[in-house]
Amino acid sequence: MSSSTTHTGDDSDKSVHTFTYSGDSSDYLSDSDNDLPPETEERLWRGIDRSTDERCAHGRPRRKVCWGGRNTGRRFLGCRLEEDGNQCSYVKWIDAEWPERVQVSFKKLWHQSNQFMRARRHCSNELRDALAAKVNMEQRLKKSE
Ligand SMILES: [Zn+2]
Fold first, then answer.
1. What's the CA-to-centroid distance between 116 and ligand 1, angstroms?
2. Domain locations in the chain?
3. What's the CA-to-centroid distance between 79 and ligand 1, angstroms?
4. Which of 66, 73, 138, 143 has the smallest CB count inside 10 Å?
5. How far apart are CA 24 and CA 16, in angstroms?
6. What is the distance in A from the centroid of ligand 1 to the CA of 107?
Protein backbone atom coordinates (compact mmCIF):
# COMPACT_ATOMS: atom_id res chain seq x y z
CA MET A 1 0.00 0.00 0.00
CA SER A 2 1.30 3.35 -0.95
CA SER A 3 0.91 5.55 2.06
CA SER A 4 2.54 8.63 0.81
CA THR A 5 1.00 11.06 -1.49
CA THR A 6 3.11 10.61 -4.49
CA HIS A 7 4.44 13.79 -5.70
CA THR A 8 6.10 12.95 -8.89
CA GLY A 9 7.90 16.19 -9.02
CA ASP A 10 6.08 16.90 -12.18
CA ASP A 11 6.47 20.58 -12.62
CA SER A 12 4.51 20.88 -15.77
CA ASP A 13 2.47 23.58 -14.08
CA LYS A 14 5.44 25.65 -13.27
CA SER A 15 7.50 25.03 -16.29
CA VAL A 16 9.89 27.74 -17.15
CA HIS A 17 8.29 30.01 -19.63
CA THR A 18 10.80 30.61 -22.29
CA PHE A 19 10.50 33.98 -23.74
CA THR A 20 11.12 35.03 -27.27
CA TYR A 21 10.76 38.55 -28.36
CA SER A 22 9.58 38.69 -31.91
CA GLY A 23 9.72 42.43 -32.16
CA ASP A 24 6.65 42.41 -34.37
CA SER A 25 4.69 45.54 -35.06
CA SER A 26 1.84 44.39 -32.83
CA ASP A 27 3.97 45.44 -29.89
CA TYR A 28 1.98 48.29 -28.43
CA LEU A 29 5.12 50.10 -27.52
CA SER A 30 6.37 51.39 -30.75
CA ASP A 31 10.04 52.08 -30.69
CA SER A 32 10.09 53.90 -33.94
CA ASP A 33 12.26 56.97 -33.88
CA ASN A 34 9.48 58.81 -35.65
CA ASP A 35 7.13 58.48 -32.69
CA LEU A 36 7.32 60.56 -29.55
CA PRO A 37 8.73 58.50 -26.69
CA PRO A 38 6.14 57.34 -24.15
CA GLU A 39 6.72 59.46 -21.08
CA THR A 40 6.45 59.57 -17.36
CA GLU A 41 7.33 62.10 -14.69
CA GLU A 42 10.04 61.82 -12.13
CA ARG A 43 10.47 63.89 -9.04
CA LEU A 44 14.05 64.74 -9.89
CA TRP A 45 13.49 65.45 -13.57
CA ARG A 46 10.32 67.32 -14.37
CA GLY A 47 8.90 70.73 -15.16
CA ILE A 48 10.03 73.27 -17.70
CA ASP A 49 13.75 73.02 -18.40
CA ARG A 50 15.70 76.16 -17.59
CA SER A 51 19.18 74.63 -17.52
CA THR A 52 19.71 74.58 -21.29
CA ASP A 53 19.12 76.90 -24.20
CA GLU A 54 16.96 74.27 -25.89
CA ARG A 55 13.69 75.46 -27.44
CA CYS A 56 10.93 73.82 -29.39
CA ALA A 57 8.40 75.69 -31.46
CA HIS A 58 6.49 76.36 -28.24
CA GLY A 59 9.29 77.72 -26.10
CA ARG A 60 11.36 76.10 -23.40
CA PRO A 61 10.87 72.32 -23.42
CA ARG A 62 9.61 70.15 -20.61
CA ARG A 63 11.74 67.61 -18.76
CA LYS A 64 10.50 64.07 -19.35
CA VAL A 65 11.53 60.49 -18.75
CA CYS A 66 10.89 57.78 -21.31
CA TRP A 67 8.60 55.05 -20.00
CA GLY A 68 8.40 52.30 -22.57
CA GLY A 69 10.49 50.30 -24.96
CA ARG A 70 14.23 50.22 -25.32
CA ASN A 71 14.70 53.78 -24.04
CA THR A 72 12.97 53.23 -20.70
CA GLY A 73 14.37 55.51 -18.04
CA ARG A 74 16.25 57.82 -20.43
CA ARG A 75 15.72 61.48 -19.67
CA PHE A 76 14.81 63.78 -22.49
CA LEU A 77 13.43 67.20 -23.25
CA GLY A 78 10.14 67.30 -25.09
CA CYS A 79 7.47 69.73 -26.12
CA ARG A 80 6.04 71.66 -23.17
CA LEU A 81 2.48 71.21 -24.38
CA GLU A 82 0.39 68.47 -22.83
CA GLU A 83 -0.24 65.22 -24.68
CA ASP A 84 -3.28 66.50 -26.51
CA GLY A 85 -2.14 66.23 -30.08
CA ASN A 86 -0.80 69.76 -30.21
CA GLN A 87 2.65 68.68 -29.15
CA CYS A 88 5.39 69.14 -31.67
CA SER A 89 7.85 66.36 -32.44
CA TYR A 90 10.79 67.99 -30.67
CA VAL A 91 12.86 65.45 -28.70
CA LYS A 92 16.29 66.10 -27.21
CA TRP A 93 17.76 63.13 -25.36
CA ILE A 94 19.69 63.95 -22.21
CA ASP A 95 20.97 60.48 -21.37
CA ALA A 96 23.05 58.55 -23.88
CA GLU A 97 21.57 55.41 -25.43
CA TRP A 98 21.61 52.41 -23.11
CA PRO A 99 23.93 49.54 -24.03
CA GLU A 100 22.30 47.15 -26.47
CA ARG A 101 21.88 44.42 -23.84
CA VAL A 102 19.92 46.82 -21.66
CA GLN A 103 17.75 47.88 -24.58
CA VAL A 104 16.93 44.29 -25.44
CA SER A 105 16.13 43.56 -21.80
CA PHE A 106 13.79 46.53 -21.58
CA LYS A 107 11.97 45.41 -24.71
CA LYS A 108 11.55 41.93 -23.25
CA LEU A 109 10.25 43.32 -19.98
CA TRP A 110 7.72 45.57 -21.72
CA HIS A 111 6.64 42.71 -23.92
CA GLN A 112 6.05 40.57 -20.85
CA SER A 113 4.26 43.42 -19.11
CA ASN A 114 2.01 43.71 -22.14
CA GLN A 115 1.24 39.99 -21.97
CA PHE A 116 0.41 40.21 -18.28
CA MET A 117 -1.87 43.19 -18.83
CA ARG A 118 -3.69 41.28 -21.56
CA ALA A 119 -4.06 38.26 -19.29
CA ARG A 120 -5.36 40.46 -16.49
CA ARG A 121 -7.96 42.02 -18.79
CA HIS A 122 -8.99 38.56 -19.89
CA CYS A 123 -9.38 37.43 -16.25
CA SER A 124 -11.41 40.54 -15.40
CA ASN A 125 -13.75 39.85 -18.29
CA GLU A 126 -14.12 36.21 -17.27
CA LEU A 127 -14.89 37.23 -13.69
CA ARG A 128 -17.44 39.82 -14.83
CA ASP A 129 -19.17 37.25 -17.04
CA ALA A 130 -19.19 34.67 -14.27
CA LEU A 131 -20.72 37.15 -11.80
CA ALA A 132 -23.35 38.15 -14.34
CA ALA A 133 -24.20 34.49 -14.88
CA LYS A 134 -24.45 33.96 -11.11
CA VAL A 135 -26.84 36.90 -10.68
CA ASN A 136 -28.87 35.69 -13.62
CA MET A 137 -29.13 32.21 -12.13
CA GLU A 138 -30.09 33.53 -8.70
CA GLN A 139 -32.89 35.59 -10.25
CA ARG A 140 -34.21 32.58 -12.12
CA LEU A 141 -34.11 30.49 -8.93
CA LYS A 142 -36.08 33.17 -7.07
CA LYS A 143 -38.73 33.22 -9.77
CA SER A 144 -39.10 29.48 -9.70
CA GLU A 145 -39.59 29.41 -5.92
ZN1 LIG B 1 6.67 72.14 -29.01
1. 34
2. 32-98, 99-145
3. 4
4. 143
5. 23
6. 28
